[in-house]
Amino acid sequence: MSSFLLHVAVQPSSVGPPMRAARYLRRGPQLPRADFQLRPVPSGFAPQEQEYQQALLLVVALAGLGLGLSLIFIAVYLIRFCCCRPPEPPGAKSPPPGGGCVTWSCIAALLVGCTGIGIGFYGNSETSDGVSQLSSALRHANHTLTAIDHLVLEMVERLDEAVRTELTTLEEVLTQRTELVAATRGARRQAEAVAQQLQGLAFWQGVPLSPVQVAEDVSFVEEYRAMNNESCLSHGGRTNKKCMNEILSVRWWLAYVLLLLLELLVCLFTLLGLAKQSRWLVIVMTVMSLLVLVLSWGSMGLEAATAVGLSDFCSSPDTYILNLTREETGLGSDILNYYFLCNQAVSNPFQQRLTLSQRALANIHSQLQGLEREAVPQFPSAQKPLLSLEETLNVTEGNFHQLVALLHCRGLHKDYGAALRGLCEDALEGLLYLLLFSLLSAGALATALCSLPRAWALFPPRNPSASCSGSHLSEPFLHARLEPVPHLRSFPSCRRRPH
Amino acid sequence: MSSFLLHVAVQPSSVGPPMRAARYLRRGPQLPRADFQLRPVPSGFAPQEQEYQQALLLVVALAGLGLGLSLIFIAVYLIRFCCCRPPEPPGAKSPPPGGGCVTWSCIAALLVGCTGIGIGFYGNSETSDGVSQLSSALRHANHTLTAIDHLVLEMVERLDEAVRTELTTLEEVLTQRTELVAATRGARRQAEAVAQQLQGLAFWQGVPLSPVQVAEDVSFVEEYRAMNNESCLSHGGRTNKKCMNEILSVRWWLAYVLLLLLELLVCLFTLLGLAKQSRWLVIVMTVMSLLVLVLSWGSMGLEAATAVGLSDFCSSPDTYILNLTREETGLGSDILNYYFLCNQAVSNPFQQRLTLSQRALANIHSQLQGLEREAVPQFPSAQKPLLSLEETLNVTEGNFHQLVALLHCRGLHKDYGAALRGLCEDALEGLLYLLLFSLLSAGALATALCSLPRAWALFPPRNPSASCSGSHLSEPFLHARLEPVPHLRSFPSCRRRPH
């Protein structure tokens, strides 16, 4: 239900500012931060600063503290139950009161655990969705940026080719009439000017940062890929580090799915053990529950730290990303502001170059028109290079319109918005669901760990006083071969008892 | 787990063809279709044809058949259990064998039902996500289309204004020199030509179809909105039909959430009834289970028909949408193909107009430059209108670049791809999950309906032979005040029994 309401509230806003909704998700975990000396730390996202890292580590440490406390509580509860309970009168047949309640509370705890697992799968899927959206937006942005570079390169080459061949031929043909040669030279100058202006538009050329590299780094979190070990082994240096990251990330992803499946199996087998009254199975599942409890607290720590860091990042992503991109790419503020803000207040930094190129192209066109009118009647051999030049001009004008569309901030800004939405809406929401899963499963497993030993002590024993000594561990299915114990009640019961 | 794997497989592909993945989702339900006379029907999406509608209704009817069969099976099973079982020896204390198994199978069925509910919530959320993505893409497309219209209107008005004021002033100032007046008249002609070319670019002007209207119609499925009854009552005719649709859609949405919650409550209260051995609660929950079983089969029929229709639509959406849009908008094939296909093979239908406008703008610029050079030294009063004209020209050129970017197919085609992905990946996936929920809950509830009467017959009775007569219905909590029955076993047990 909560997931549904959340989804209705998180209405994606693809126009205008990248995100209007889900602010409560990002403003939510604005808890006070502190470093190891418990001094307050500013909550701005600064992953490179040591005190911020310490604040995140402190969040992880809090989960460790929770684990320790819950282990101590379970140990105290069980020691008190096993060793300090009042001695039973010998030969007493009835188990301690509340036996049915123990089983039912165990079942309830396992149900809560199963609910948590469902939430965990949902959260994992949401996180994966968000990361996949981020990676797809980055890939699309990379596609746009490389398309700009290729288009500029293509146009410049085409113009250079026209200058070298057709315009030179034309000059040679028209060499008798100086005013026509002057017009041809004018067209050549304009074409060279256009090529020069266009080269300034390929702003991403030579920039060391590749969004597709970032997308690849990110998508390792998201999906399992068959690891190409040969490529990892055959390269050295930085590639090896990348391979290491890849292996670690894939293992992290796998670990999450395995944790969820492990907890599901523990819940189901514990229920089976309770149903079949198999003491052996219940004891094994108690030990497994302890293991999963530790893992749940561990994952809770990691998720909490990631969620805190991500919410800090998402509370004002623009400034951080703008500064980071400026450092990484060395691009000017005007270009970055244009693409990251993309509103009426920021003017197109390529406007001047585009207008100049456009005018130069129009001038070439009118000069070619003039040449066709003046020269072709006198020099029929000029017609072929002129037609070829007009064809080149038409193609260049078509490409120019495409370049204008690619350079406009709408496309890249939409990718930026989609990437932020993926990270700060879906991925953060998924992380919060994963956190809820960890909380629920930690609570459910702690309850189950308290109830299970009491429940197995209530199984029909050979020697009830030895219920804590584990004397039946070696014969788990023995009671299945016993004579059926005559029973009057077939259900665990949780009713009030008369006093 | 399956959701996760599915998500890894459904990698969104925002570049190139709108969807490469999730084909198996759409090709999946390509079952043979038949109409009411069971003649085969082509599986192409044709919602307006009667035989296709019949094929979908037949899918709904299949769910009705399933409901009937499962009701008959449950009735036969229960009648056989109640009336045909061997007479118990009077005074027998032990319930029939397998009593614990009945309870545990009931618990297992309810667990499966709870799993189904989780899947249902996930599917509902996915469907809502998909519809929200579709509606957001439609809104974005509408934003682009209206932005084109507004931009064209603004540019035309600006040029008209310049022609009416500055160019007229300039002509009056330069009236003594005819060649300058001719140049001014040339600029005026060019400006009028640009305005005329631009007006042809506002291709969506006067089109009766509004994507935002479609988005609003669609988003009623997705989210609950406070219904503005006054606006519904104060208008007549078509608006009333819209209000009716709105109310129906919101009710459909609400019904889904209520069904999921109802089933969750039935599962939990049945478990509570079993735990407290409350015969009254279990009987009420049995009746409720019957109701929810009917509702589950009903929702399954609707989901199956919707999924079949949607998968037919999604197997080749382009042709259908292209034809529908052509009929609804009356736009030419060249424009629709350009936006729906958006690849190298389809040329920009606005290329000619854009190039002509661009050349005319460049010509105006060179004429103004010439005028400034020639006229200003002789007529200083010409400087003010010339500067104003150049300012207008600069703004128009900036707007022209924005118009080129808006008219390019990238943006609108990306919206189209996002809308299709929302409908054919997320919404269809969510529908399949909802179908899985309905199947699981129908199976679980049928099992529970078979087990529950047997389980309540095993509750500690006042008069065991009257277990089918309902004689305890009026005193639901009576046994809570009874003396506790001495019991040796506190758990339901499902072990093998010795022969």
UniProtKB/TrEMBL annotation, chains A, B:
Cited function: Calcium-independent, swelling-dependent volume-regulated anion channel (VRAC-swell) which plays a pivotal role in the process of regulatory volume decrease (RVD) in the brain through the efflux of anions like chloride and organic osmolytes like glutamate.
Pfam family, one: Tweety
Subunit structure: Homotetramer; disulfide-linked. Homodimer.
GO CC list: chloride channel complex; plasma membrane; smooth endoplasmic reticulum membrane
Domain of life: Eukaryota
GO terms of molecular function: intracellularly calcium-gated chloride channel activity; volume-sensitive chloride channel activity
Protein's UniProt name: Protein tweety homolog
Species the sequence originates in: Neophocaena asiaeorientalis asiaeorientalis (Yangtze finless porpoise)
Location in or out of the cell: Cell membrane
Transmembrane segments: 55-79, 252-273, 280-300, 431-452
InterPro entries: Tweety (IPR006990)
Membrane topology recorded in Swiss-Prot or TrEMBL: Multi-pass membrane protein
UniProt entry keywords in alphabetical sequence: Cell membrane, Chloride, Chloride channel, Disulfide bond, Glycoprotein, Ion channel, Ion transport, Membrane, Transmembrane, Transmembrane helix, Transport
Gene transcribed to yield this protein: TTYH1
Keyword Transmembrane: yes
Record field: catalytic activity: chloride(in) = chloride(out); L-glutamate(out) = L-glutamate(in)
Family statement: Belongs to the tweety family.
